[in-house]
Amino acid sequence: MQDRDEHQGEHRGQGVQHGLEATRRILTGASDPPRVIILTTFNLDDLVYAALSAGASGFLLKDVTPEHLVSAVRLVRSGDALLAPTITRRLVERHARRSPETAALPRDLAPLPPRELEVLRLLAQGLSNTELAAHLHLAEATVKTHVARILAKLGLRDRVQAVVTAYETGLVTPGTVAGST
After folding, report:
1. What CA–CA distance (Å, rounded) separates 5 from 55?
2. Cα(152)–Cα(156) distance, rounded to whole angstroms?
3. Residue 58 β-bridge partners
4. Distance between alpha carbon 95 and the CA centroid of its chain, in Å?
5. How many CA atoms lie within 13 A of 1 on its CB side?
6. Is residue 4 pLDDT above 70, yes or no?
7. What is the pLDDT of residue 133?
8. How far apart are CA 156 and CA 143, in angstroms?
9. Which of 36, 30, 43, 143 is CA-nearest to residue 88?
10. Cα dist. 40→25, 49, 92, 106, 125 in Å?
11. CA distances to 20, 32, 105, 176 from 99, in Å
12. Rounded to the nearest 10 degrees, what angle do helices 159-168 and 140-154 cross at?
């Protein structure tokens, strides 16, 4: 029994590695790279980070409903990015424990002026462009410009990477509510 389980674990690991390698190859060097959504049964933090590092724009678990999968494809096709809600919640809880009061502004965020930091802070809390515009009393086009500048200045591909960066740098912590920072 143990040999069979070990073999299945090895096979599973190989499949994961093949998917990550395929993502890297598909996206490397393409002038207009396609958007990639990883669909897997493995709900592992390391795999999520590896997939995002490889360039994936989305990460969903295979228990996703057909309707949500179609919605996810449309969302990613439009240029947005997504993670399965259970993954987002867990990543935030496990990997973003630093308090903004105890952390100096990280060098990673130094290129951002105060307004873009505010936009990133709210974006990381899950606000859409429409919600950001309403909250900041800006036109939605202005919000889109701020988001595009944030992504460009930080060398990020999409909103998912921006959210991860905001949490990893301590700009936002779990439990932060829009407008409370």
Report:
1. 31
2. 6
3. 37, 82
4. 13
5. 0
6. no
7. 93
8. 17
9. 43
10. 18, 14, 20, 33, 25
11. 32, 38, 11, 10
12. 70
What torsion, rounded to 10 degrees, do the Cα atoms 45, 50, 53, 54 define?
-140
Contacts for 31-39: CB closer than 8 Å, 24+ residues apart:
35/76, 35/77, 35/79, 37/72, 37/73, 37/76, 37/82, 39/64, 39/69
Structure-token match 């057909």, residue found = 66
The residue written with tokens 């496990």 in the block is 94
Structure token pair of residue 43: 């709900």
- Among all chains, which residue has been given the structure tokens 């952390």? 103
Phi, psi for 2 (deg, rounded to 5): -65, -40
d(CA 93, CA 87): 10
- Chain segment 123-155, per-residue pLDDT in tens: 888 888 888 999 999 999 999 999 999 999 998
**81-139 confidence digits (pLDDT tens):** 788 777 776 766 665 554 454 444 455 898 999 999 999 999 888 888 888 999 999 99
CB atoms within 10 A of CB 141: 10
